[in-house]
Amino acid sequence: xxxxxxxxxxxxxxxxxxxxxxxxxxxxxxxxxxxxxxxxxxxxxxxxxxxxxxxxxxxxxxxxxxxxxxxxxxxxxxxxxxxxxxxxxxxxxxxxxxxxxxxxxxxxxxxxxxxxxxxxxxxxxxxxxxxxxxxxxxxxxxxxxxxxxxxxxxxxxxxxxxxxxxxxxxxxxxxxxxxxxxxxxxxxxxxxxxxxxxxxxxxxxxxxxxxxxxxxxxxxxxxxxxxxxxxxxxxxxxxxxxxxxxxxxxxxxxxxxxxxxxxxxxxxxxxxxxxxxxxxxxxxxxxxxxxxxxxxxxxxxxxxxxxxxxxxxxxxxxxxxxxxxxxxxxxxxxxxxxxxxxxxxxxxxxxxxxxxxxxxxxxxxxxxxxxxxxx
Length: 375
Prior knowledge:
The protein is built from 11 helices and 13 strands. It has helices at 2-6, 16-22, 33-55, 107-116, 162-186, 206-212, 218-228, 298-307, 317-323, 337-344, 360-368; strands at 57-60, 65-67, 86-89, 98-102, 124-132, 145-154, 202-205, 231-235, 260-264, 267-270, 273-280, 285-294, 330-336.
């Protein structure tokens, strides 16, 4: 089962030989670079306006850097393979310095922000978040530059159930599909080649997908199930499944992946979180758009940190605020902006939608296949 272990942490393909094999060979961009920029603006505006409306959110500013010792940064896959960029601020001739980090995501900061901005139950916020993830393998849909709509909303203890999670997921999916249709109204040529965006999501627990494909590692399981259901929400990412492996690593200090939820055929399943994945007809591959979840309580935080052997985190300021009930219970997530644009505007690579750095080997490889990365 070595391939299952290797498949648990992080995104990316692994080698540029593999990337070259999976890039489409018959790609013709539907929108030229100028049209793409116009479409990006319109899609962004549509998503932000309707996300705020559907989930009762306001737009706020978020940090690009955080205090290293605050516990506020996101450590992503919890195995230490993807670490933040650290730097020292030599403030006041080093009399009052700050050790800072570039954020990898605003996942934890948002929950504190709910308190900072005085949000009540049913109210929330979203932010146009920018981050850096220096340890990613850079391919057609992974970049070191991260752009997300990060959102968070206050809930009650009674709200912490799958019904609420599914309701929020459906509203979010309605916004994304609406954004795609909005782009098609502005640029009708987007309708010509590919199937319509799926109106409905299929909800499946990670255990159910494992039952369907017990011998396949995670990414292959996802690929096979998406061939059948072109838009899915995978519930329960982070807990150990029946085969003894995780579906995928998930940090222990934001999403709740340990709470018992579904019982099916006598099998107990866990988790109040999940991911939206779609079938991308351009790349003919699985395509993750967003992760979200109901956040940990002080009890589930301690349980999950014990499982991941990270109980030392409980000494950090952010985690102490959860333990002392200083910040509200919440649900939240992050929607990948360039990944969403890529899907909705029928693009073959993130670099057609966002400007960042790419290795020459990838730029040349894409150019040979008529995929022109912005720079």
